[in-house]
Amino acid sequence: MTATWTAMRLETETGSLPARLYGVRPDKGSAPLVFHLHGGAFTGGTLECGAFIAALLAEAGAVVVSADYPLASDHPFPFALTAAFGALATLYRRRAEFAGRGAPLYVAGEESGGNLAAGLAMMARDQQAPHLSGQILVSPMLDPRLATASIREAEAGVCGCKWADGWQKYLGSPEKAAHPYATPLACSRLQGLPPALVVSAQDCPMRDESARYARALEQADVPTEFDLLPGPTHWPDGFAAAPEKPASWGGTLRTLFSRFFESTRTRRRTPHSSVL
């Protein structure tokens, strides 16, 4: 897979965010417009780390703006989320320029970027703007307790592992773990969120929290699809695979993205779960 992108910046109330633009505005009509956020356990990751997933989203038919965001080492919650929300609002105002008039807007992210995408969906719902057509969460980091079976299977979760350290730096203080925008899995009010595609893998440490969040969304009557890919995928480190080196799961993920765009645009979604 060859990823073609253009460097750009998105303005926010706290400054501008470096970003990459993938895909091309259609000559007629509109394409899905996706605001994408890379992984990196809140403390690392770059636009290049997000290139593989961003390119898959573009190959699935979307125009993708993949943004960098302030890392938790220097900017704990809610700094990154606030900056990302400002960028999302900018993107909504400019959606016709990027993807055509009336382009549906989505948020997407993997690992820590998936956490931010889920938080953005909640903020957009609560502020009643911008309107989102869907959220795409790929093995999102959602639970700072790090006590699931999939975390234990990965021999992670103890102090010193990158996810434990990432959560500690992102939250900054223990009381922020109760904030639904910071820890979406702890949220008790999920009604009214946009349709969700949640994807994880058998060998991913975030497998169980991804599945739990998908179930919670379904129970809140949010149209939700949960897909579990077979291993080995080497997620979440595999997300940063170079675009020119396709992973075995790349085609499957691209198909899931394309199907989600089509189903949400036509408003004929039927919630379901599947194991691929």
From TrEMBL:
| Ranges where the Alpha/beta hydrolase fold-3 domain occurs | 34-234
- Alphabetically ordered keywords of this record: Hydrolase
Task: Give the source's domain of life in one word.
Answer: Bacteria
The record's GO molecular-function terms, alphabetically, read: hydrolase activity
The protein depicted here goes by the name: Alpha/beta hydrolase
Q: Which organism is it from?
A: Xanthobacter dioxanivorans
